[in-house]
Amino acid sequence: MARSSGKAGTGKPGGGGGKRRQVAALPWRGEGEALRVLLVSSRETRRWVIPKGWPMKDKADAAAAAQEAYEEAGVVGVIAEQPIGEYEYLKKLKSGAARLVKVDVYPLEVTTELQSWPEKGQRTLDWMTPVEAALAVQEPALRALIARFVGIALPEEERPALDPAPTPARVAFQRLRRRVTALWGRYRP
User: Fold this and answer.
1) Which position has the higher pLDDT, 57 or 14?
2) Residue 33 sits in a domain of what CATH number?
3) Which residues have CB under 8 Å from 81's CB, separation 6+?
4) The domain containing residue 36 runs over which residues?
5) Residue whose C-alpha is closest to residue 103's, from 51, 166, 170, 66
6) Is residue 1 part of a domain?
7) Which whole-number Å values give the CA distances from 148 to 117, 130, 135, in the listed order?
8) Segment 94-123, tens digit of pLDDT
């Protein structure tokens, strides 16, 4: 499949300036009352997210999103060819810099759950009701996207106060605190 013009390579972390772009899968299964959405925990902050990653040079964006779902959650299925929307979040890059990243989201109807996959054991997986999934994610635009996709309305009074998404500085501080605590325990008499 050919990639859309003007998007090839723009999402790579080493690319040009401006916003970076990622692709994500929104794994789902079932119908009506049995409809469930799969969320995965992020490796760094353990927040609930959907499988996502950088576009792949040799794959269409939808196929790259499906690949991320396989690698991060061990699910395979039928991926939509067009995104249902997008959201933004702040990503800490390996260089330590923080970048605003735009994520295109592709629904993935899950047909198979694998016993083994590349990131098994690195993340927590949970099939949630649509309301649980929408309320579990921290990014307001992703929350709205999930609600819109599954056809639910989240009244203001049912929305819990959002914890602010961890900033790169907060994540770095948490890592440093864990290291200091570990070292302190090692060298205490």
Assistant:
1) 57
2) 3.90.79.10
3) 60, 62, 106
4) 20-161
5) 51
6) no
7) 30, 10, 13
8) 787 788 899 999 999 999 999 999 999 999
The single-letter code of the amino acid at 73 is A
Rounded to two decimals, the pTM is: 0.73
Q: Would you place residue 13 in the very low, low, confident or very high pLDDT band (cuts 50, 70, 90)?
A: very low
Cα–Cα distance between 158 and 66 in angstroms, integer?
32
The reported pLDDT for the residue numbered 154 is 74
What pLDDT is recorded for position 28?
97
- HEC readout, the chain: CCCCCCCCCCCCCCCCCCCEEEEEEEEEECCHHHCEEEEEECCCCCCEECCEECCCCCCCHHHHHHHHHHHHHCEEEEECCCCCEEEEEEEECCCCCEEEEEEEEEEEEEEEECCCCCCCCCCCEEEECHHHHHHHCCCHHHHHHHHHHHCCCCCHHHCCCCCCCCCHHHHHHHHHHHHHHHHHHHHCC
Q: Phi first, then psi: give them for residue 57, nearest 5 degrees.
A: -55, -40
Number of domains within the chain: 1
| Distance (Å, whole) CA 60 – CA 8 | 9
